[in-house]
Amino acid sequence: MMxxxxxxxxxxxxxxxxxxxxxxQTHKPVTVIFDTDIGNDIDDVLALSMLYTxxxxxxxxxxxxxxxxxxxxxxxxxxxxxxxxxxxxxPIGYVGAKGATPDSGLYTGQTLGYREQGKKVFTANLQxxxxxPEAYKLQRKVLxxxxxxxxxxxxxxxxxNIARLLASGKDEYSNLSGRELVAKxxxxxxxxAGMFGDNPFPEYNVVEDSSAARIVFEQWPGKVVTxxxxxxxxxxxxxxxxxxxxxxxxxxxxxxxxxxxIKMPYDRETWDLTSVLxxxxxxxxxxxxxxxxxxxxxxxxxxxxxxxxxxKHHILFLDENKIAPIIHRFVQTVGGHx
Length: 338
Known about the structure:
CATH architecture: Alpha-Beta Complex
Number of helices: 13
Number of domains: 1
Keywords: Hydrolase, Signal
Shape: globular
Protein name: Nucleoside hydrolase
Distance between the termini: 25 Å
Order of helices and strands: EHEHEHEEHEHHEHHEHEHHEHEEEEH
InterPro entries: Inosine/uridine_hydrolase_dom (IPR001910), Ribo_hydro-like (IPR036452)
GO molecular function: hydrolase activity
CATH class: Alpha Beta
Largest sheet: 8 strands, mixed
Radius of gyration: 19 Å
Strand content: 15-25%
CATH topology: Inosine-uridine Nucleoside N-ribohydrolase, Chain A
Number of strands: 14
């Protein structure tokens, strides 16, 4: 996700522990498919780091990462993040060249090619996008093998991949259509999409592929929980936490990408992180869910929500007294401490 709103906030001295200091969990992990437009905004990278923490803690089983940004560096960067976090076995799917935002972005290429004293810091396969499956096919593979009603999908970029999933037909992974497969296998869909606050405008994740977003909100057969722009815009990730707690700085791909995205210092809005937190830790009630209703996407890309009995959509609300605890939790989970 990419947005233009930037706000520098004061750093709160919160615990930020290095990855690896993760408590083991005893409960059964939730199966997750993560769909991201990584490469457009840095919050996708922070959100992915949260998922690594949950994976290490046994809270989730991250079965696939699917990329909706149509540039091959997005795939190569995701692979770098996986391998750096010792999770190179997590499969990646790619939207392909016909997806949205075919530019390279502001950090993927810079991080992949980063050099110190004339030597490249990271190894990367820049041709990987040509070698991975199309995103919706990988989603079908994971869903086809999953128990009924067991998969949580987290989509923090464009709706392109999941719209293609809905439109897909039977294949080697399932005899069900995409819509039937989703209805049978997906427990819940969590999205960062839309803007439901005062003075709404066409939000980036929606407007970049508004036809796909419209398809998803009209046709998705199960429950959808959406975090709008106005939620993550009020919560800022403290950049000093990265500086304080990752001594490798430029040699860490997450920090390297953060430094490249915008000139430091800056505290970034946490749009995508809100969906990940609510999807995995909704029982902690960091956010309030609306009553059931319907999200509609207008021709200009603006989104509206109205309560409606029997509706399948819910939007998130943020209370002021929850902002500090949420920032604390973001700092912990991005840093690797469950």
